[in-house]
Amino acid sequence: MRIENITSESLEGMSDAELRYLRSRCLNIYDRYFAESDVQKAVGMDRRWFLTKYLLLRSEMENRSIKLFRERPLDVEVHNRIFKASIWKLDVPAMGDMIAIPNYVSVCGEFIQSPVSVEKIDVIIRTAKEHRNEAFEEKISTLIKEQTNKELSIIYEPKGPGRAFIPLFDLVLKSHDETRKVKKLTATERIECDAETARIRENEKLPLAGEPHEFKAAKFTHPNGHPRCLICGDEEPVGKACNMPEAWYEKFKWDDEEAWTEERKKLKASGKLKKSLASDYSVAIKKPEESETMIRIPVGPDCEVTATITIDKAQGIQALYCGKIKKIRTYLFDKKKKAWTMVSARAWIKEQSAKAEKALGEGRGIGGERQGVGGAEICVCPKCGHEEKHERNVPCAKVKCPKCGTPMIGKAQKKKMLAKTEKGTTTFKIIKVDKAKRLAGGIVYEPETEDTQGDLASKEEIEKMMHGFMKRYATDSKRIKINHQGKRYHFPIIEACIPEKDIVKGGETIPAGAFWLMIHISNDKIWDMVMNRELEGFSMGGHSKARA
User: Which of 161, 305, 408, 435 is the residue whose CA sits 20 to 30 A from 216?
Assistant: First the structure.
């Protein structure tokens, strides 16, 4: 049977084997042409029309209790429609499209009789003139002029042309691609929703967000109406467990809640599934807390966390870092990496504080020369060597060399151009955005600019970093992370260069020696974060050893 001939009546006359064969054909068509969610039409078939036909087939198979050995992406998409239709008794995509006003735009007048000699084309739009839409007129004019190279005369007539005409467009009502409830938020709810979204963004940076964990529903949903996880921000998955292996989601039928509940209990009992965010990785804590897997000790002020940085990977020590004030807010001690206790974690923090105070008391920076309590006494240019007397309370990095314009550094820093305790990053804003092409470009690293560890990199070191990155990208293109955390994404690189001279991109100057990068962002969620300015720049994270 052909797909277009599928009806409830025709399916009733088919055998079980024929239904299975027909389903196999539908699965092949879906996997080949409609696997990408943004494909709405292929091989002469509309996506909604195809899903509606498959929905009839699945309904007949379920009525006969024909067992499916494995659910496929097509089944999941159809299940969502069945579930929503059962709630509202409506299947919006199945309604299809309908013509509201036939011959809404047409050509008439002298052009019908003399298409070559006439200078102007009369175009009739079937609506009142007070409903005039200039943008719509412009689109119609562009389309017709591209083919005829003639000027247009737009005429508004609700009744349509009264003489011979050439119909161009019908006014069509298009049904939505899914059945969903749209709820408008009040001003108070909008504030709460934005605050919850900000909390999810912070939670996504924490270790648990990338590990298997029980789905924890947020109060507010995604814009598409689907529930979102308060821990990782993903939509509610089958089985209500996030980040599980793909095969796990196929263990039971999607609506067998009893089986999924029992499965989650087993996973939680074995420790393979984390229970919640609050007991392990909550961002906003004001006193030390300990769970089965993590110890958290706040040490800094109540500030906005911008990154989770690694202090000692081998010992499982991380920290929540406030980039705006350059302070650590909370230390995280992973008990799976080392047998940390609250006592040993506190002792480690106390030891680090004592080392820092001793270094300050002796007047020495890490790996540098004697500076005294007041910091560096001389600012030196790392490029030409010019020295200036240090102005108290003004960082040397804020002072430019009067000879060559390079940002200066404290004299004690001169010998440790790339010194790092563990991991440092420098963030530069996105300079150029092409909305139509979904391109975002910016500086990844700029020479002689401090990172979060207060370190600098020369042009030669940046070039070495870029070459290493591009070589690795050639064999493993999933190398870009969001805020240095979680899963890696593949974003095609459109431009990558280190200019020998200053160049201008997006109206701003890219200095010589800087690493410029432009990528194409295909992921809808990430693109929305860029457009909403939740992601504002690129940064290069790396590890290196201090040089004295």
Answer: 305
Q: What residues have CB less than 8 Å from 373, skipping those under 6 apart?
A: 360, 363
Distance CA 27, CA 6 (A): 15
d(CA 265, CA 257): 12
Q: What is the pLDDT of residue 52?
A: 85
Quickly state the pLDDT bin for 356 (edges 50, 70, 90): low
In 3-state terms, what secondary structure has residue 328? Answer: strand
d(CA 442, CA 427): 10
Place of tokens 């562009």: 142
* Buried residues in 242-271 as b, exposed as e (16+ CB within 10 A): bbbeeebbeebebeeeeebeebbeebeeee
Above pLDDT 70, what percent of the chain?
79
Buried b / exposed e along 82-111 (16+ C-beta atoms within 10 A): bebbeeeeebbbbeeeeeebebbbbbbbeb
User: Which pLDDT tens digit goes with each residue over 38-61?
Assistant: 677 887 888 878 888 888 898 898
Strand partners, 350: none
* Local structure of 214: helix, strand or coil: strand
pLDDT at 169 (0 to 100): 94
Quote the mean pLDDT of the chain. 78
Domain with CATH 2.20.28 in the chain: 362-415
pLDDT at 545 over 50: no
Nearest to 74 by CA among 22, 18, 29: 29
What are the tokens at 51?
A: 């899903």
CA 388/CA 396 separation, integer angstroms: 9
* pLDDT at 457 > cutoff 80: no
* Contact yes or no for 348/337 (Cβ under 8 A): no
CB count within 10 Å of CB 389 equals 8
User: What residues pair up with 443 in beta bridges, in sequence order?
Assistant: 516
d(CA 492, CA 497): 15
Beta bridge partners of 327: 322
Q: What is the rounded distance in angstroms from the CA atom of residue 53 to the CA atom of residue 111? A: 44
How far, in Å, CA of 527 to CA of 522, rounded? 7
Per-residue pLDDT tens over the stretch 337-355: 888 988 899 999 988 877 7
Alpha-carbon distance 477 to 365, whole Å?
A: 39
The predicted pLDDT at position 364 comes to: 34
**First-to-final CA distance of the chain:** 77
Give the CATH fold of the 362-415 domain.
Answer: Rubrerythrin, domain 2 (2.20.28)
Alpha-carbon separation of residue 62 from 6, 67, 257, 290, 478 (angstroms): 16, 8, 18, 49, 40
Instruction: State the burial class of residue 510 (Cβ atoms within 10 Å of its Cβ: 0-12, 13-18, 19+).
Output: buried
pLDDT of residue 101: 93
